[in-house]
Design goal:
Order of helices and strands: HEEHHHH
Largest sheet: 2 strands, antiparallel
Shape: elongated
Number of helices: 5
Helix content: over 70%
Strand order of the largest sheet: 1-2
Structural class: mainly alpha
Mean pLDDT: 77
Low-confidence stretches: none
Strand content: 5-15%
Length: about 150
């Protein structure tokens, strides 16, 4: 599970505000102004599209894993957890491109976000490659067995 530092979280909130996905409102609480973030209509639409896209991709990935594992090897639900950590490409791209500040700290945050994205994609890639290798091994085994029948 992703546990961001406060500085990363505020940076993300800033980017989402710049993109018009959320807005900052102030609420009175005990005679003090409290910052509260609300999702905008654009943010709701973006979230709706992101969820729809992620569900389609996740369903295809889950079906692949279940189909592959049903008769070949055990299904690992941890695979889906890594997959769920991959940001929707369009949202990810918008966050990276939206930065107008060219400070060293901003670049460090971008690099950190890119490295997190890369790490999750590599985990999913490696797991898929393992499944492909197992499928190839079993295919070879079946070919051998079928040749022995003749």
């Amino acid at each position: 599970m992703w546990n961001p530092k406060a500085s990363s979280l505020y940076w993300i909130l800033k980017k989402q505000r710049e993109m018009g996905l959320i807005k900052l409102v102030f609420q009175k609480k005990n005679e003090r102004n409290k910052k509260v973030y609300e999702i905008t209509d654009k943010g709701k639409e973006t979230l709706r599209r992101m969820i729809k896209s992620q569900k389609k991709i996740r369903m295809a990935y889950e079906n692949f894993l279940k189909l592959s594992s049903e008769h070949i090897f055990p299904f690992d639900s941890e695979d889906l957890e890594y997959f769920d950590n991959i940001l929707n490409y369009q949202i990810f791209s918008d966050i990276i491109k939206s930065e107008k500040d060219n400070s060293e700290a901003t670049y460090k945050k971008k690099i950190h976000l890119l490295n997190l994205q890369k790490e999750n994609i590599m985990i999913v890639r490696d797991r898929l490659n393992n499944y492909i290798e197992k499928i190839d091994e079993i295919t070879q085994k079946f070919k051998q067995e079928s040749m022995n029948l003749n």
